[in-house]
Amino acid sequence: MKEVVVLAGGRGQRLRPYTDVEPKPMLRVGRRPILEFVLTNIKRNGFKDVVIAAGYKSERIKDYFGDGSKLDLNIDYVIEEEPKNTAGALIDLKDMLKDDFLVVMGDHLTDMNLRALMEFHKKEEAIVTIALKKVKEAIEYGVVDVEGSVVKGFKEKPIMAHYINTAIYAMNKEVFNFIEPYTDIAKDVLPRISKERPNKLKAYISEDYWQDVGRVKDYEKMRDIFSAVELYLRLFR
């Protein structure tokens, strides 16, 4: 039975023209594909049994990672013949999964403590636990607090803090009661659980590193950073 699902089937339209050649999870940062960082973090957290849901150019993923033995993992694949969206892709995996399992994306760079996430999820007896990341955003303008037509106060270029969905989840198989074909986890499944079983949707706040590389500017930034680090290590270690 599989402990971790890696969703790696997207077309990666926002990363064209890079994804005209490689599937998004196989784009390299430094010398390694993004997906190798994902799988390595899964392994370092003590998980071993992984299923990769792949689609677009899936042969590139399978040829590189094979059965996972090079990373000391047991990897199986489910190949989508057509895009099914993030939640829809899980339907074909139902019988392969443990009662509680992780879902991660194949295009994120993170060292998140997945073991702690799973332990929190089980303790809370949640249907889904969302890993959230606190981010701070500087507002470039002065902000005015208004109540009706009355100005109540001013904040000059405040820093606003909020939580973002990292798209890393711990799930119980009860989640399949809320999944329909071709639906999305964040847009469809989570709002439904929040409405129908609000006490079973939990938030896990992570302080660990996390970076989405789903856009060209984000990918190019991380690619250049990793290349510079590798150059430094080659020259000075």
What does this structure look like?
The protein is of the alpha/beta class. The protein has a single domain, classed as Spore Coat Polysaccharide Biosynthesis Protein SpsA, Chain A. It has a 7-stranded mixed β-sheet, sandwiched between helices. A two-stranded antiparallel sheet has the order 2-3. Strands 7-13 form a two-stranded antiparallel ribbon. A hairpin with a 2-residue loop joins β2 and β3. The longest helix is centred in the C-terminal third of the chain and has 21 residues. The protein is globular, with a radius of gyration of 20 Å. The termini are far apart. The model has no long low-confidence stretch (mean pLDDT 88).
State the secondary-structure class.
alpha/beta
| Share of helical residues | 25-40%
Say what the CATH topology is: Spore Coat Polysaccharide Biosynthesis Protein SpsA, Chain A
Average pLDDT, rounded to a whole number, is 88
**Total DSSP helices:** 6
Architecture, CATH level 2? Alpha-Beta Complex
Can you say what the CATH homologous superfamily is? Spore Coat Polysaccharide Biosynthesis Protein SpsA, Chain A
